[in-house]
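example protein:
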Amino acid sequence: MVRRDNAVSSALDLLLMVPYLIPGVVMAIGYVATFRHAPLDLTGTAFIIIMLVFTRRLPYGVRSTTSILRQIKPSIEEAAINLGASPAKTFASITVPLMMPGLIIGSLMSFITAINELSSTLILYTSRTITMPVLIYVQVIDGEFGTAAALSTLLLLSTGICVFIVFRFSERKESAFV
């Protein structure tokens, strides 16, 4: 999408942004309707929750990756190819290492939003696949405010640790470019 500006890449970019536009509850209902019959009966499994959260966070990863790739000058790759490296080797040995810090930061940011996902997992969870935000919600509904507060604190701490790692990693990345 970054290196080729044509109708196909624009359509792919638009298609990859669709999960960002659709509310989580609507996507969860769609997943239940789609994956409740054999041979792909996934309702009630952790896999359907993982798949939905991955799909809902895909636009964040795509935007992060495309912004990183836009910062890498094509002339670097062209120089490696002119010196005899194959395009695949150029991508693996030059482009990917340059992209890696941004990919890690983008992945952590996607993870941070994923562990706090409530809307779609509220539809998909079972007693075996309950997530922390859903458990907090259930505890509040049941009037167990102490348990909900303790779980919220754990969720807040894990989110804070991830944000701290993102900031530390981005500081290191910025100092590498100075």
Remarks:
- Residues 44 and 125 are 7 Å apart (CA to CA).
- The chain has one domain: 7-73+100-177.
